[in-house]
Specification:
Blueprint lengths: L5 E2 L3 E2 L12 H6 L7 E3 L5 E4 L4 E4 L1 H11 L12 E5 L12 E6 L14 H21 L5 E13 L4 E10 L6 E9 L4 E9 L3 H14 E3 L20 H6 L1 H5 L1 H4 L17 H11 L10
Antiparallel strand pairs: 1-2, 3-4, 4-12, 5-6, 6-7, 7-11, 8-9, 9-10, 10-11
């Protein structure tokens, strides 16, 4: 029996045959509700102008894919706005992958620290924080994680208020490392979070699609970064450094799960857990208030 493992401070195992007991892969995928062209996200906060290389599935289809096909916990898709799926590959294929879209309504993230960011220093700090959090994981009997380094150094476009970066992660004693590819789009009231996590061997594939994804997603009028009203709108308690290091994830992503693009018949790792989320909250704080750099 093959296993898919997910790390959400609980080890999940799932036999691949469970999904197909009542349906075929083709029937399951046909019911995901693929959309192409221009798509508006729930609440009208943003639009997706999909390039031919991607399809979109809505919240319901995304939840089914994440939980029933990819083996995530039942609540993994609760806050998902949708997913981007490569047109050329089935999400049920061994080399398939997808990008999960959520919205972190933590407030306006001030990008004033963009010009003075020292990404190597930030990486060292993140590695130290990850090591410190491992002690809590070990106490609870869970697998440790090592932040190996940048798989893609952070890049921020001040004109479009969009950024991306990628991390290489190692879980426990395993030698097959995990790729966590992150895209963030800053808005008036929060950040659109796009996460693709896969094996390191898929880095070139995902990197090649980054520009297509960045250009496809835009906040709508009234929700854009430039629509922010100082003194009236909520401000996040962190800057870009905190965004990269995971301050926002402590509130949303790490509690609900940062999904991966390693599908059926492969390892599935869900970044999550109360212990790490609590650790990040202690480091960065949260909620509304004046901007401070992480």
């Amino acid at each position: 029996m093959k296993q898919r493992a997910s790390w959400a401070f609980v080890l999940w195992t799932l036999a691949p045959g469970v999904l197909w007991a009542a349906t075929t892969p083709e029937e399951f995928e046909a019911k995901l509700g693929y959309q192409t062209g221009t798509v508006t996200l729930a609440g009208g906060i943003a639009t997706l102008r999909l390039p031919p290389s991607f399809r979109y599935i809505g919240p319901e289809g995304s939840k089914r894919l994440l939980t029933e096909a990819w083996g995530n916990p039942p609540d993994a898709g609760d806050d998902v706005l949708g997913m981007l799926i490569p047109s050329a590959t089935s999400p049920l294929a061994e080399d398939g992958w997808g990008i999960v879209i959520t919205f972190d309504e933590d407030g306006y993230v001030n990008d004033a620290d963009a010009a003075k960011m020292n990404y190597e220093k930030l990486l060292r700090e993140m590695q130290e924080q990850t090591t410190a959090a491992n002690e809590e994981r070990r106490k609870q009997g869970f697998e440790t994680v090592q932040l190996v380094g940048w798989a893609e150094a952070p890049s921020y476009d001040a004109a479009s208020h969009k950024m991306y970066w990628a991390k290489e992660l190692a879980f426990g004693p395993r030698t097959d490392h995990t790729l966590n590819y992150n895209i963030r789009i800053l808005g008036r009231r929060g950040v659109l979070v796009l996460n693709a996590v896969a094996g390191m061997h898929q880095l070139a594939t995902i990197r090649g699609q980054t520009r297509n994804v960045l250009s496809a997603v835009e906040f709508t009028e009234g929700h854009r970064y430039t629509d922010y009203l100082p003194g009236k709108d909520k401000a996040a308690g962190y800057g870009l450094a905190g965004l990269i290091a995971g301050a926002a994830a402590a509130k949303t992503g790490l509690l609900k799960g940062l999904w991966v693009g390693i599908l059926a018949f492969k390892k599935l790792i869900v970044m999550g857990g109360i212990a790490l989320a609590a650790f990040l909250k202690r480091v960065f704080g949260g909620g509304s208030g004046e901007q401070r750099n992480a």
